[in-house]
Amino acid sequence: MITLRMQVDVRTVDEADGLAGHEGDEFCHVPSGELELHFAHGEPRRLRAGERALFSSHRRHAYVAPSPEGATLLVVLTPPGQAPAKPLAP
């Protein structure tokens, strides 16, 4: 798994260099701010602080912050064929 913390400040899909897809699965969580998750087809999905999304990364997508304050984003990528890690025992 690959874990990333990002600050999203782009306001349009064009500023985000367009839509991109890749292999694997993607989980994103918005700790602060507001984010729009854009896909090649359909309406963007708005995520507010505390909300999350899980999707197949092969779907072309882009993260956009609709407000000037931007958004903080945590992303976990699972490469294809890699099983998710087992939770630690208490």
TrEMBL record:
<dbReference type="InterPro" id="IPR011051">
    <property type="entry name" value="RmlC_Cupin_sf"/>
</dbReference>
<dbReference type="Pfam" id="PF07883">
    <property type="entry name" value="Cupin_2"/>
</dbReference>
<protein>
    <submittedName>
        <fullName>Transcriptional regulator</fullName>
    </submittedName>
</protein>
<feature type="domain" description="Cupin type-2">
    <location>
        <begin position="20"/>
        <end position="76"/>
    </location>
</feature>
<dbReference type="InterPro" id="IPR014710">
    <property type="entry name" value="RmlC-like_jellyroll"/>
</dbReference>
<dbReference type="InterPro" id="IPR013096">
    <property type="entry name" value="Cupin_2"/>
</dbReference>
